[in-house]
Amino acid sequence: MEFAMKILVTGGAGFIGSAVVRLAIARGHAVVNVDALTYAACLDNVASVAGSPLYAFEQADIRDGAAILAILDRHQPDAVMHLAAESHVDRSIDGPGVFIETNVMGTYQMLQAARQHWEGRGRPGTFRFHHISTDEVFGSLPHDPQVKFTEDTPYDPRSPYSASKAGSDHLVRAWHETYGLPVLLTNCSNNYGPFHFPEKLIPVIILNALAGKALPIYGDGSNIRDWLYVEDHADALLTVVEKGAVGRSYNIGGENERTNLELVRTLCEILDRKRPKASGSYADQITFVTDRPGHDARYAIDPTRIRTELGWRPSVTVEEGLERTVDWYLANESWWRALQNREGVGQRLGVKG
Ligand SMILES: NC(=O)c1ccc[n+]([C@@H]2O[C@H](COP(=O)([O-])OP(=O)(O)OC[C@H]3O[C@@H](n4cnc5c(N)ncnc54)[C@H](O)[C@@H]3O)[C@@H](O)[C@H]2O)c1
């Protein structure tokens, strides 16, 4: 690392935010973790760094602009990395309101607080507001390997979740153009890895397999995602906050396109090796279930910009990352058992269409 920063991370008790917090501290940055501790949060995710003198925690809701401004003024960070969000597409279908409140209005409050704080400090040109977003804002791609999302792909969100993230991205760009706030924006593909909340596809498959339950595949399993190991994403995000050009957006992907069915079969092969069943394969538990309404067919990232301009590329293939992920879930049963009791986990959500 070239220089140490103080970074205010929102959503640092979640899946990706906690990976950012752990890696930032490992690299010598100071971190202020701001999180409301919703159902998706788990402070155990940052237990390995919580005793560090570089770590501070503030429980606050990003929708509370006054609280965020007070935290900014108290800690005087060099950069904000804004990850706090409602993140589960299926939940956004059943209850879109909180997605609009947190992802759109919460980001608005973050921008206003950051702007007021930054102006109060004399508008330092070194300040950064890094907004972390998703490739889902670009909509759905055809099954054609030549076509990928670039930073210039028009926005076409199709779920309440992706629409709320698209709205937040527009606000971030507007605060840069209108008020000069030094922003950075990243749009990333599907993440997986340690500490992934047990309502998302990969942990659901691992944990249902171990419990002898059905492995649910939405529709015919042909939907394609571009899978990125969460620690590679955290590395990309720190690369952007350290070296990215102000006002610029960067697409981040794993260059690991797989259909959902291929992904689940790979997980079953890994589990068959590491924790063999008394008889048969975990793949025997695969069950096809009603598709998600408006289920996007394919996401795929063209990562040329971040590779050529910032020199970042993913470090693991999806096969390597899945091996590590399965090992982590096998070794961390007490972590995921506690979260399986949380509201909505283990239920089929988002089937209203
Ligand atoms: N998971 C993915 O594959 C993926 C891919 C691309 C982008 N993203 C984006 O990355 C970010 C993090 O995603 P994740 O998967 O780690 O999410 P997550 O659901 O695991 O964690 C979200 C965190 O934000 C906190 N939070 C939620 N509402 C809050 C509020 N009102 N105030 C303060 N804190 C609040 C939660 O308590 C939780 O700790 C999100 O902005 C998401 O849109 C996720």
TrEMBL record:
UniProt GO MF annotations: dTDP-glucose 4,6-dehydratase activity
InterPro entries reported for this sequence: dTDP_Gluc_deHydtase, NAD(P)-bd_dom, NAD(P)-bd_dom_sf, Sc_DH/Rdtase_CS
Family (UniProt): Belongs to the NAD(P)-dependent epimerase/dehydratase family. dTDP-glucose dehydratase subfamily.
Protein name: dTDP-glucose 4,6-dehydratase
PROSITE patterns per the UniProt record, alphabetical: ADH_SHORT (PS00061)
Residue ranges of domain NAD(P)-binding in the record: 8-325
Catalytic activity as recorded in UniProt: dTDP-alpha-D-glucose = dTDP-4-dehydro-6-deoxy-alpha-D-glucose + H2O
NCBIfam families xref list: dTDP_gluc_dehyt
EC nos: 4.2.1.46
EC primary class: lyase
Keywords from the UniProt entry: Lyase, NAD
Obligatory cofactor(s): NAD(+)
